[in-house]
Amino acid sequence: MKIALLPGDGIGPEIMADAKKVLDALRLPNVTYWEADVGGIGYRRHGHPLPPETLEMAKAADAVLFGAVGDPTCDGLERHLRPEQAILGLRQALGLFANLRPATMFPGLEDLSALRPEVARAIDLLIVRELNGDVYFGEKAIRTLDDGRRQGFDFMSYAEDEVRRIAHVGFKAAQGRRRRLCSVDKANVLETSQLWRDVVIEVSAEYPDVELSHMYVDNAAMQLVRNPGQFDVVVTGNLFGDILSDQASMCVGSIGLLASASLGEQQTAFGTKGLYEPIHGSAPDIAGQGTANPMATILSAAMMLRHSFGREQEAARIEAAVARALADGVKGADLGGSAGTREIGDAVVARL
Ligand code: NAI
Ligand code: MG
Question: Which residues are CB-neighbours of 149 under 8 A, at least 6 positions away?
């Protein structure tokens, strides 16, 4: 199993070190770790946020564990040289079209949620967002009409094969969880969504063990706040998923706890190739202080073991250890606690 570690900028190297510590503690057989520069450090050392050798390493690896990129000293650079471009370049090069973001309420953290604790307690959901299509990638422009008014437009589209492959990811994820899939669209007004819905229904025939439901996105936004406990897996397009996944993350609380996976179609000898990263950024405001919470990266490593290496048991062990550490009061500054990065990593290892 070849794992590419890309720590990146800011708190990236700090949180990555603790995720690696947790992986090491599992004593997995036949793992090789590679490490390379990405983001601002990539630019400063090699002249590009995604240096060719980093890209080659990511392509050759079975999975990529990514810290965070973002460096205020790069603010003046042209767009294609900014650290954040690295993540887009990796997604494209690795064909990653499915973004998985779990939102789970850890016992004892209900008070940090934007929701009432009794509502927040029930959150255990996974948002599967399509990443490569939708209104972000269609023809777009600001043009001037005959009467002189300016008009902006962005062409929204999904081809059926694009819907089909993300639907499969959603159904398979549901099979590994509580076997319920909610497809979110806006089929009452959008043709794109009508096709989305038709294709999801078609694919559902292959997953008779998964209960499929459909919800309009406006209602989904409301239900996420009103009764998030009703959701297991949510599958949706790029635009709706962008918004709903951010909304869901605030329902569970701290940014320092939220993991993500980006998956493609490429299969390795061990599972689906993917890139795993915390949803937070490089947090330049706390970089180098040893106070960053590594749990989101540790939980991203758990997702990596699950999706790219078929190691459900070890993934669940990591998740349980994080939950136990939190229940025991091991909390970083982002959770109102005082535990430092190393201390949190050690606490998770001790509970594996
Ligand atoms: P951010 O997520 O880096 O930080 C937001 C706030 O949360 C800060 O106060 C930070 O200290 C805190 N925070 C974040 N992660 C934390 C952790 N693990 N433990 C404790 N506190 C934590 O977002 P911000 O400040 O908007 O962006 C900083 C840089 O990161 C920018 O350059 C941005 O472009 C980049 N960024 C990169 C992402 C990525 O690599 N995928 C995602 C989001 C932002
Ligand atoms: Mg967003």
Answer: none
> DSSP assignment, residue 106?
P
Residue with tokens 């800011």: 10
Tell me whether residue 185 is exposed, middle or buried, using C-beta atoms within 10 angstroms of its C-beta: 0 to 12, 13 to 18, 19 or more. Answer: buried
Residue 185 maps to a domain: yes
Residues 5 and 44 in one domain: yes
Catalytic residue among 2, 59, 124, 242: 242
Residue where one domain finishes, among candidates 221, 253, 285? 253
- Say if ligand 1 is within 6 A of residue 112 CB: no
Question: Is 95 annotated as belonging to a binding site?
Answer: no
pTM for this predicted structure: 0.93
* Ligand 1 atom having least distance to the Cα of 284: 28
Domain CATH for 344: 3.40.718.10
Q: Give 304 Cα–ligand 2 centroid separation in angstroms.
A: 21
What is the 243 CA–ligand 2 centroid distance (Å)? 6
pLDDT category of residue 5 using cuts at 50, 70 and 90: very high
Residue 104 lies in a domain: no
145-158 burial: b if 16+ Cβ within 10 Å, else e:
eeeeeeeeeeebeb
Q: Cα-flanking dihedrals φ and ψ of residue 297, to 5°?
A: -75, -40
Name the residue range of residue 240's domain: 110-253
State the total domains in the chain.
2
Instruction: Tell me the ligand closest to 243's alpha carbon.
Output: 2
Which residues are registered as beta bridge partners of 35?
A: 5
ipTM surpassing 0.90: yes
pLDDT tens digits along 180-212:
999 999 999 999 999 999 999 999 999 999 999
- Domain boundary residue among 235, 253, 271? 253
Q: For residues 56 and 319, what is the distance between their CA atoms, to the nearest angstrom?
A: 31
Q: Which ligand 1 atom sits nearest the alpha carbon of residue 297?
A: 18
- C-alpha span between 293 and 251 (Å, rounded): 18
CA distances 158 to 155, 162, 184, 197, 220, Å, are 10, 6, 14, 11, 20
Instruction: Say if residue 161 is in the same domain as residue 279.
Output: no
